[in-house]
């Protein structure tokens, strides 16, 4: 019996040692899994190239799909002091192409005098994109337009009627009075006779 007890105790000790070793290996495996030996990659990229910044005297600046505010539509804005990577310059040197996410090809054009270059360099010259075509060509319905146009009634032009011929009166000499004594001469004769009569009366009175 004492020998049997010794073997039983040894068996229990061996079994306990095996169980402890299994738990020890499991615990070591968990620790190894929580402490990886590899390094975790991190993003450390920074902006490269030229950078432009909106001037301090402007609160908002429009950006366009091409180097012109007349030929291309506005596709966004840049705010006061906002920075953007510069990608190129227009052929005339007045417009700068910048990186502008959220629009087709993620590029836009800003007018050069509105921004300040804060990272010097040489920008490549970029050709202007093709101008966009209008979605629809507006047409005028002639029937609708005619409703707002007052009809013009043709009128006959006035005709010119010449005035009657002007008759200028002419005065002819009066033949009936041509043989009469002039009134002046008659008055002079009467005066002469009166003077002659007065002279005779004067002589007789003496």
SSE layout and pairings?
Layout: H1 2-34, E1 51-54, E2 60-64, E3 74-79, E4 83-89, E5 95-99, E6 107-111, E7 115-117, H2 142-147, H3 183-205
Please summarize what this structure is.
The protein is built from three helices and seven strands, in the order αβββββββαα. With about 210 residues, the chain is an alpha+beta fold.
Written description of the protein model:
With 206 residues, the chain is of the alpha+beta class. The protein is built from three helices and seven strands. 30% of the residues lie in helices and 17% in strands. The longest helix has 33 residues, at 2-34.
Show unreliable segments: 25-48
CATH superfamily of the domain at 51-117: SH3 Domains
Strand content range = 15-25%
The assigned CATH architecture of the domain at 51-117 is Roll
CA-CA gap between termini: 237 Å
Strand ordering within the main sheet: 6-5-4-1-7
The main β sheet shows up as:
5 strands, antiparallel
- What helical percentage do the residues reach? 25-40%
Following the backbone from N to C, one meets helices and strands in this order, namely HEEEEEEEHH
Query: Would you tell me the structural class of the helices and strands?
Result: alpha+beta
Average pLDDT reading: 75
Provide the CATH top-level class of the domain at 51-117: Mainly Beta
- The gyration radius over C-alpha positions equals 64 Å
Q: What is the CATH T-level topology of the domain at 51-117? A: SH3 type barrels
Overall body shape = rod-shaped
Instruction: Report the strand count.
Output: 7
**Number of H/I helices:** 3
């Amino acid at each position: 019996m004492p020998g049997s007890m010794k073997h039983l105790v040894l068996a229990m000790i061996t079994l306990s040692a095996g169980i402890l070793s299994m738990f020890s290996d499991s615990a070591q495996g968990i620790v190894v899994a929580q402490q990886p030996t590899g390094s975790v990659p991190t993003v450390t990229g920074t902006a490269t190239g030229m950078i432009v910044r909106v001037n301090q005297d402007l609160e908002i600046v429009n950006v366009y799909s091409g180097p012109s505010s007349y030929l291309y539509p506005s596709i966004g804005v840049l705010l006061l002091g906002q920075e953007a990577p510069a990608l190129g310059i227009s052929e005339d040197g007045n417009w700068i192409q910048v990186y502008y996410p959220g629009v087709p090809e993620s590029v836009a054009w800003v007018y050069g005098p509105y921004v300040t270059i804060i990272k010097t360099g040489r920008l490549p010259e970029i050709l202007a994109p093709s101008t966009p075509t209008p979605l629809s060509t507006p047409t005028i319905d002639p029937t609708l337009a005619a409703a707002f146009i007052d009809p013009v009634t043709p009128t006959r032009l006035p005709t010119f009627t010449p005035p009657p011929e002007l008759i200028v009166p002419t005065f002819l000499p009066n033949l009936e009075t041509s043989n009469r004594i002039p009134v002046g001469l008659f008055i002079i004769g009467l005066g002469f006779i009166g003077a002659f009569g007065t002279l005779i009366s004067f002589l007789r009175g003496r």
